[in-house]
Each structure stands twice: as C-alpha cells, then as structure tokens.
Amino acid sequence: MSTDTSPPRDSRHHVVLGAGPVGRAVVEHLAATGARCTIVTRSATSLRGAASRQADLNDPIAAKEALRDADVVYQCSQPEYHRWPDEFPGLQRSIVQAAAAAGAVVVATENVYGYGPVPLDTVGPLTEDLPLAATTRKGAVRAEMWRELEQANAAGTVHTVAARAADFYGPFVRDSMLGERFFEPLLKGKKAEIIGDPDRLHTVTYVPDLAAAMVRLGGDPKAWGQAWHIPNAPTVTTTELVALAAQAVGVVPAHKVVKRWQLRLVGPFMPSAKEIVEMYYEFDEDFVVDHSKYAARYGANATPLAQGLAATVAWYRTQEQS
Q: If we measure between CA atoms, which residue out of 82, 80, 23 comes closest to residue 49?
C-alpha cells in the first residue's frame, strides 16, 4: 500500500498571456510547482518552465487558437500605457471570448485605478467594496473592463476573477513608480526619482506576491466572480521606501521629486510620462490598499519590504552586468 501523502500533481493547463514582469513571475511560480504552463506572446518569448506560443491576442481567431486547451488563463498582457483607452478593452474582449470557448477561468491582472481618489481620513483604506467611481481616462477604462468581466461571470459565459495590485516593484519592473528611474540612480550613487509628496503613505506590490495570489485565486472556484486586493507589506511613506532601497544598495538615501509640470513638459517625447499626470493624486495623498478580505481566506503572506527591495536591487545589478 502506498504511503505517499504528497498533494496530487496539478494536471490543469495554465496559459499565461504576456511576458512582462507579471507574466514572467506567474510562469516562475507555476514552474516551481511543476505545473503545465504555456506562455503566449507576439514574439514567441521563451521562458524556463513554460512552452511557448506566438499569437496576436487582439485577433479573436488567433486568441482562440492560442487558448484552445487552456484550463486557467492569466491575463497579464496590456497595450502601451498611453494606448489603454483605445486598445485595452478590445484586447480583453478577445481574450475573454477565447477563454470562454476553451472553458477556462480568466484571472485578470488589475490595479486600483478604478476607484478614483479615496480620502483616507474620511473613507479609510481602499477596499474591494468601494464604488468604481474613477473619472480619469485610465481609471474609467479599468472600471469598465472589470464590469465586463463581472457580467460575463454572472451570465455564465466564462469564469473570471480579478487580482488587484498597487504600484508594482520587483524583478523586470521598469515602468513604475518603483522602476528604473527609482533604482538605477541609487545604484549610481545618485538621487532616486519619485513623484508626489514623499512623506505620504503609499502601498506597493511585490510582483512575485501578485503572481502567487493570481495562481491561488485561479484555483479556487469560491473566489471567482470577485475582485481581490492581493497581499502587500505594511504601507510606509515614499521617504521610507527610498531609505530601505538605499540600504539594500548600500548608499545614503536621497531622492528628488518630479513635478506635474515636468511630466507635462516631457509628455510629447515620452507619452507614458504624460499619462502619469492624471494619476498624480495617488502620490500626493496617503494611498493605502487594504487586503484583509484576501488575508481572511488565504493568509497575508506578503514579502517584507526590505526583502523584496533587496531582491529587486539584486536583479537591477544583474542588468548592469549584462
């Protein structure tokens, strides 16, 4: 009689869309468990632990073929930041239709733009039951995209679940508040670039934690049809984030604030910078994301900031050497 008490191997086919920071982290998480995994990109990106497929997911026929045998679809693909309003909804609809044809659950990477400004002193931290009341271009797009996912789930068209994150940081993250303009200057002994009031609280998300949460949510039918704030380390101020990152680098903490007018000035040459202007409110006021709903069901399990920042610094150092 067998005495093997190990859990059964995951026989589902996990299909990850996009090879950005989140897609890569999801693949790495799945590969560590030995799960069957395929990554779908326009360029047939090859990652360890995953098969590779090439497809333009904006094309419904190509998307349907790429997702033909999927059980769980991790939607980590997106247009360029400044093209969200024009291209993101159509991309998601193509993916949802393809996932529905395959009978797969869609795990969508989301952020908290859809809530709009939320005053911490009167409303408190951001929770999933807040209305999606954003009036910014990107916030309105995010809100409408979730409503479509929610409606598709309620109609029985396809199972969906959303993993909502704060500003990303971690390996492969470059275009973020805690991206290359934050870490690379510190590694050169210069001032980290930040935006907003440095003494305001600001929740940040370590990408590997987001990936682990997405896999967990995709495997739990009781989570489907809902949006979940994924676990984050306790929120600190941006000044404290700079200090922790500088400690990991081994330099004296220093930063400089990029103002709204400076972002507008470079906007014609750097569209992503112009797009940050309407989201500047997140950095000028306290911005705290609550994940107690997730923690009550699965546990908090967030990587400590010092550990996550040290791992991110280590990754940036590998980029300097390559």
A: 23
